[in-house]
């Protein structure tokens, strides 16, 4: 009776889709210890058409596992990062695929899961790495080709297992799971079965037997995504595109076992900080959701790689989906894509910190050496050509082979370090460098080819380094000058203000004054972007503070002139003409409806964050019909709106006695 009962239970479980759970419960109890996520970094080359294509790079590779980046906080330091693999700007699609992806594919046929994730800021090469182009196919087409080939071989007639491959393609956008093969279906639910397998009931699965099948499903679905992009503000860079390839195996003979291996190929949302890049409106809203997923992904990778007991998979959709395919018994690789241009600097640092195995501060300025990969690499190549590798070895010995340029001949007699030529150069005392250069000039003017030590390209390098040094000094000089100018403008402003106050104290002055553009563009034109951004982040209200003080001062001064202080303050409001008030309101309303985030920041009480919230609200709800609508903006309270009105329309800093109440 007992046995029959149990059988019935099993049957019931089987029909409800949980049949396999009973069989494999034992296995589920002994989960393997969480595995590391391997991390590779790919530095793309400079790309035409991307701003800053003629920069000197601010990051470069050291060897097949490490790279260094300049530390803009401290010019005397360079930061060195170590990863499982580093792919430099000249690495090919095949290098990345063969080095980091291909080796994990065979595990799928052992019934294990795997994931490949491309991480990095928009424009750094995620899609190039994952998808590539017809001329340079990326990880996705290569992996599919190989996987299909592998399953054809392993599943051929006469082999013990029959194999089949299916694909699904989904997008995680604002923490919603959307089926790209069936765009009409809404947000899908992620479930976990009792064996710890993650599944999405209702997600389309298309069987694929050849690459043509894959393309047939994948290409239109990708277009779905791109259509969304133009309609919805570059949605594609804000969503995670998840391609799931499943390999199913069924044993042809008893005991007819089944195995399933899942491969996730993921083009992650851009990792740039949307608040910092000045995205507004809808995108500002999105960034929260995207940052949650990426943020949790970072924590999950961290927890896995440090062997922490709790891995917070459940804290985001993305990591929940990957729970059985990231860490654990799965084989996972995260490819952090970075770009060499300076404007990517902060995002590059973020991407490197995201999953670096180790980071090290090196006391060596980066700037002196940043010319190497860009300017000098071709020179090195062409110099190697006349000597074959073996001849070169005979001629120079192993050390110089490592150093890799004949010009080392003269210098290396006393120099046994295995370092790049530039590293040695950077150790030269600047005074010595100066003397060598002038000696070189002298010899040059006498028609000589230069000293052996200074023969090209070493000499060129020195000249270049010198130029860089001079440029750096020039920048420093400009910065000082700019500071002076700013101080001057501020002083001038203060003086102007005083003067105006003495003749016509209208209520609108603070607004009109604050929109006067003299000081601001100057600041923005000269300060280096990084510093500017940091300053803004640190104290978004600096200017407002200054003006508050002025406002108060102005009031006291003008009052001194007429009546006793307290009484005057009480009478302040009635002195404003209704036309002026209405005019002020209209002006502010116009600004609220037409101003950019930057314009809005010229208003009292509106910092960068609020300015973006306002622009965002406007994008979603249309224009403000009255200034009081500000209260409807999420993140701006009624109280804040009132204080905004006081500060801007009445020209009084909030918290003072004579506001309307
Ligand atoms: P993301 O997907 O991260 O936003 P993309 O893959 O679209 O970035 O790359 C941005 C641009 O840079 C594209 O024009 C792309 O073709 C180019 N690019 C990216 N990586 C490389 C590379 N390794 N070699 C050459 N071009 C690249
Ligand atoms: Mg992309």
Automatic annotation (TrEMBL):
Keywords: ATP-binding, Coiled coil, Cytoplasm, Cytoskeleton, DNA-binding, Isopeptide bond, Microtubule, Motor protein, Nucleotide-binding, Nucleus, Phosphoprotein, Ubl conjugation. SMART domains: HhH1 (SM00278), KISc (SM00129). Residues 468-500 form a coiled coil. Gene3D superfamilies: AF1531-like domain, Kinesin motor domain. This is Kinesin-like protein. Residues 382-417 are annotated as: Disordered. It comes from Loxodonta africana. Belongs to the TRAFAC class myosin-kinesin ATPase superfamily. Kinesin family. PANTHER family: CHROMOSOME-ASSOCIATED KINESIN KIF4A-RELATED (PTHR47969), KINESIN-LIKE PROTEIN (PTHR47969:SF9). One of its GO terms (molecular function) is microtubule binding.
